[in-house]
Specification:
The chain has about 450 residues and is mainly beta. The chain contains six helices and 29 strands.
């Protein structure tokens, strides 16, 4: 069956088409003619269960929804192909012109390559433990495959993660959730980069189901910001952690508005490997410090945002890495570590950080008063270490090690960063004491206040 969705002139829209399945064990979906844009397709079975969430901004044009997990495509969920009326919903979250054309073909024989070595990402038990050890776990929280606009396979990404010795990985293809991934020894965090347009992008972690974008964008007489606010509120209520990504990268217009109380994370270092440095990580860090000073306890994260091999043919996964301190290597453990702010970010340096107070260990994100000892080191380089208090540098030292005591008073937010040739290479979520609760909650108002403090 051929389905065509022609775009209207509305700022966003939802259209649906139905087709009948009588006797089938699989459904082939071919993206025949689709714009390479952030447009979504949601497939539901007769019981209104989501069986596929696809983006038009993908280099993959054929998907299989199957009863067999081995023959089910990524971005789909295996299960019984029920007889009855199936629905495919097209979601256009931003203004575009044109149309989407696809073929939907129920059948008995999948017309693709089986992947018996893949596992179901969303079927993982959150409390399944890969390592019973309380320690720092390393990985990359931001990367893309050809299931969105990346230029590498999921196998390539997994190979790179394994070569890097990662403990965990999050594949964040735009707006879709990776459902099938090759078996590897590391943990996989179910994730996506929610991308409605090029105003702001958001990573989200900890899913156990696919997102029903059609539900939100089918509302009438509401703004996109209202939809975004409710989506974030609902995801946050389900335990999903949401991050503001690379806010000051080229092309980001920052026109979204939402309640920042539903945001948990902030990407302070994004894709420093890119030629020409199109992403202003320093400005992002200043905004991050500003939000902390407004009372938002946001966990710092970093991500390579890797899409393709670099000029040397190397896929830049892990540039940077985010280390998460967790009681164990499990989905629940890593999410708890992220929620608590127990993170450091490193870009091509091997840094160690130890925080102590009266003989006990302190961790990034902790609330603590009084004197705390900072002890940090870099194994191979002298770095410019900067101790930051409430967004201002209070001490800077060029050395391989940094050891200082500093006292936290009420309202203090203190963190340590390190730079090499003025480029940020190490960062930690702050420790803090007695910071005031936020009085302004809307992103647009907070951004406007921040921009007034900037000279650029």
């Amino acid at each position: 069956m051929r389905i065509r969705f022609a775009f209207s002139s509305e700022p966003f829209e939802v259209q649906s088409a139905t087709f009948t399945v009588q006797h089938a064990t699989c459904i082939d979906i071919f993206l025949v003619d689709v714009p390479f844009e952030h447009l979504f397709l949601v497939l539901k079975d007769p019981e209104q269960q989501i069986r596929a969430l696809l983006t038009c901004k993908t280099r993959t044009k054929h998907f299989i929804v199957s009863e067999s997990a081995a023959s089910s495509s990524n971005n789909t969920l295996a299960g019984k192909i029920l007889p009855g009326i199936w629905t495919i919903t097209f979601v256009r979250p931003a203004l575009h012109v044109g149309a989407v054309v696809l073929d939907v073909i129920p059948g008995d024989t999948p017309t693709g390559v089986t992947t018996p070595d893949n596992f179901s990402v969303l079927s993982q038990r959150p409390n399944r433990v890969l390592q019973h050890a309380e320690k720092w776990y390393r990985g990359d929280l931001h990367c893309h495959s050809y299931y969105s606009d990346g230029r590498v396979s999921l196998s390539d990404i997994c190979d790179s993660a394994e070569d890097n010795g990662f403990d965990y990985l999050a594949v964040t293809d735009h707006s879709v959730i990776t459902t099938r991934l090759p078996h590897r020894p590391f943990l996989v965090l179910p994730a996506t980069e929610i991308t409605l347009d090029n105003e702001v992008h958001y990573n989200a972690f900890g899913f156990n189901k696919l997102i029903d974008y059609g539900h939100y964008f089918s509302w009438h007489n509401v703004s996109k910001n209202t939809i975004l606010t409710q989506l974030f509120h609902d995801l946050s209520g389900e335990g999903v952690l949401i991050s503001i990504n690379h806010p000051f990268s080229e092309g980001m217009t920052l026109q979204h508005d939402f309640d920042v109380r539903d945001i948990h994370l902030f990407e302070v270092i994004n894709a420093p490997h890119l030629a020409g440095h199109p992403i202003d990580n320093d400005k992002a860090i200043r905004f991050y410090d500003f939000l902390w000073n407004q009372g938002f306890r946001l966990t710092a994260t970093g991500g390579s945002d890797a899409h393709k091999p670099d000029g040397n043919g190397v896929y830049p996964l892990g540039k940077p890495t985010t280390a998460i301190f967790s009681r164990e290597l499990s989905i629940a453990g890593l999410l708890a570590g992220l929620r608590a702010g127990r993170t450091t970010i490193s870009n091509e340096v091997d840094c160690q950080l130890h925080l102590r107070q009266s003989g006990r260990t302190i961790y990034p994100g902790d609330e603590v008063s009084g004197e705390v000892n900072f002890a940090a080191s870099c194994s191979a380089h002298a770095l410019s270490w900067r101790l930051m208090k409430n967004g201002d540098c209070v001490e800077e030292t060029y050395a391989q090690t940094f050891i200082r005591n500093i006292s936290l008073q009420k309202g203090d937010v203190i963190r340590l960063e390190a730079r090499r040739n003025e480029e940020i290479v190490f960062f930690m979520t702050p420790i803090h004491y007695g910071i005031t609760l936020p009085s302004v909650f809307q992103f647009a108002a907070l951004l406007a206040q921040f921009l007034l403090t900037q000279k650029d």
